[in-house]
Specification:
Layout lengths: L3 H18 L10 H13 L9 H14 L8 E8 L2 E8 L1 H11 L4 E10 L3 E7 L2 E7 L8 E10 L4 E7 H11 L11 H5 L1 H13 L5 E3 L2 H8 L11 E3 L9 H11 L15 H6 L1
Parallel strand pairs: 8-9
Antiparallel strand pairs: 1-2, 3-6, 4-5, 6-7
Helix pairs in contact: 1-2, 1-3, 1-9, 3-8, 4-7
Length: about 280
């Protein structure tokens, strides 16, 4: 088994190669140096990262680059899980990452976007009045009772809005059917265990995204967004600013990078010290 230091070093090299090969698909204003440095900082603290393939790790991190989401700022996650006896990472956005993407890529300019939890004792009413969907929500201050559901709202600058509601049962079903389990604890990801409320809000917000027509800058962005959560976005609701013929080159370029960036033999102890980006900067 390769050492953690070697895996991180190879991951760093692979990530730089992938970003370079896909530089035309990077979002406007993308800060490559900061992104890679923050990625490697997070990977240093990722449990059993040395059991994962460096090119697989880099591909997972690349999805965050396409969407301009920061792993260190917890706008997205690379979550370890077991797959067919091997170790792999799953890319997943956080609630605040979802809000960021909606604000940035909605064709109809967004004034506000948020999700809220509904607990036992809170007043919640959803109705249609004069053809417009309305939600009346009056939560009990500092209510810590059981969560019974969640809802998400997007308010557009033109005065229109979209609303989505989900019961606890619906959200739990999404988690049970689609979420990967950690190979460390055999439980659901840390996000579901440590911050279930945030994941509830993210889940209903992602479903709301099906009503929002988005304009991504590249095919890679659209694909990364579609693969980033349990609830899949309908393809017809996504518009791209690039020709669809560009998509054909994606898998080919990934394969070429993988063939040229395989990890070196591990029969000798690597002389790498410190973080991967520090070593390559020498």
């Amino acid at each position: 088994m390769a050492s953690k230091e070697l895996v991180l070093k190879e991951t760093h090299k692979n990530l730089m190669a992938l970003i370079e090969s896909k530089k035309d698909a990077m979002p406007k204003g993308f800060n490559q140096t900061r992104f890679i440095q923050n990625c490697m900082t997070v990977m240093q603290d990722t449990y059993q990262i040395e059991l994962c393939n460096p090119i697989s790790i880099a591909r997972t991190l690349l999805k965050g680059a396409f969407l301009d989401l920061d792993f260190f700022m917890k706008e997205c996650y690379a979550i370890p899980y077991s797959k067919d006896g091997s170790k792999d990472l799953q890319f997943q956005t956080d609630y605040k990452g979802e809000v960021k993407l909606i604000r940035k890529y909605s064709i109809n300019p967004v004034k506000d976007c948020y999700a809220r939890l509904v607990r036992e004792g809170d007043f919640f009413q959803e109705e249609v009045k004069e053809g417009q969907q309305i939600v009346n929500f009056r939560p009990i201050p500092f209510n810590t009772s059981q969560i019974v559901g969640a809802f998400a709202v997007v308010l557009y600058e033109d005065g229109s809005m979209d609303i989505e509601t989900m019961s606890t049962e619906e959200i739990e079903n999404i988690k049970e059917v689609f979420s990967q389990k950690s190979f460390k604890t055999k439980e659901f990801s840390k996000a579901w265990v440590a911050t279930p409320g945030e994941m509830y809000k993210k889940t209903v917000l992602r479903r709301l995204c099906k009503h929002i027509t988005k304009s991504f800058e590249s095919v890679e962005q659209a694909k990364a967004f579609d693969e980033s959560a349990e609830i899949q976005v309908k393809p017809e609701k996504i518009k791209l600013d690039v020709p669809n013929t560009f998509a054909a080159a994606v898998d080919i370029e990934y394969q070429q990078v993988e063939e040229t960036t395989q990890p070196e033999p591990t029969s000798t102890e690597p002389d790498y010290k410190g973080t991967p980006f520090e070593e390559d900067a020498k």
